[in-house]
Amino acid sequence: MSNKPVRAQAKGSAGVTGGPNSAVGEQAPEKTPGKRRTAQPSPQGKGSAKKPESHLAMVRRARRINRELAEIYPYAHPELDFRNPFELLVATVLSAQTTDLRVNQTTPALFAAYPTPEDMAAAAPEDLEEIIRPTGFFRAKARSLLGLSQALRDDFGGNVPGRIEDLVTLPGVGRKTANVVLGNAFGVPGITVDTHFGRLVRRWKWTEQEDPEKVEAEICAIFPKSEWTMLSHRVVFHGRRICHSRKPACGACPIAPLCPAYGEGETDPEKARKLLKYEKGGQPGQRLSPPPDYPGLPAPPLGAGQAAQAAQAAPTGP
Q1: Class of residue 318 by CB neighbours under 10 A (exposed 0-12, middle 13-18, buried 19+)
Q2: Does residue 129 carry a pLDDT above 70?
Q3: Is 176 known to be catalytic?
Q4: Which of 24, 41, 140, 302 would give a disulfide with 45, using CB separation of 3.0 to 4.6 Å?
């Protein structure tokens, strides 16, 4: 892998800014100032008569995609607001079957009422349910939060453990949640296989597996361990902003030349730009308190949208 690949991106169409290259053991290609690049169909795309891609070629393409994503999303981060491992653990459990935005809008009141595992373990179930109701499935989630808080209090001295073997023993905590907490609260590398991650790595032909643990194992084998956590963020960011499930914005995608699924979505650049979401589409992100380097807008607090609509609909004075 000593030769530098030639990059072809649609930076103008996706509104992308360059960022640092953080891929391990590989160097980003030099850029040619002043030239706009247009996304073209991938050599592996539909209608290709080329022979099947070898495993080695797939690994090289996957690592190149990771390098590209590192430049597209140098600010990629966990999209849950948290200040300590306990808050991240609780927020991740709440994020099941809902958006990170709705979790972030709910957790300020939750952590104001129950800032520690000991506080949450002693909560009345009905009070906890009422606070987390906006996240959906609130009864089951309340049971998980009470159970994990009690386990943290009784078995771990009120501290979130920093080992996956311990985390997965907590109620409501599986490998996905454990890897989120380990990677972002403890700096322990891990692949987080959520819906977006699994969808994109299959779309990119990095794996054909459907089971999250098998996906995790195969992707871990492709990338250096030091890349696992940030790779997870970059892939999820791309899935939420550009490579959507039902209608990916292929014509505005900077990694279109590397994508075997190019053409499954909208290829017209102007139409594709209208599909971009969050900061790529000029809209607020999911975090109420995003990192300082986030280029987009903070998300509004719970009820802020309804309040703004009500203010607009209110009659004006005489």
Answers
A1: exposed
A2: yes
A3: yes
A4: 41
253 annotated among ligand-binding-site residues: yes
> Token pair for residue 174?
């599986």
Amino acid code (one letter) for 263: G
Residues 1-32 have pLDDT tens digits of: 444 444 444 333 333 333 333 333 333 334 44
By C-alpha distance, which of 230, 181, 193, 168 is closest to 82?
181
3-class DSSP state of 304 = helix
- From 119, 194, 274, 293, the catalytic residue: 194
Half-sphere exposure of 246 (CA within 13 A, CB side): 1
Q: Which of 176, 205, 225, 277 is catalytic?
A: 176
Find the angle CA(78)-CA(79)-CA(83) to the nearest 5 degrees: 70
Residue 259 marked as a ligand binder: yes
250 a known binding residue?
A: yes
Tell me if residue 207 falls in helix, strand or coil. Answer: coil
d(CA 203, CA 237): 15
The Cα–Cα gap between 39 and 165 comes to 44
Taking alpha carbons only, the member of 108, 111, 102, 112 closest to residue 133 is: 102
* Cα(47)–Cα(249) distance, integer angstroms: 20
H or E element, residue 67: helix 55-72
> Full-prediction pTM beyond 0.85?
no
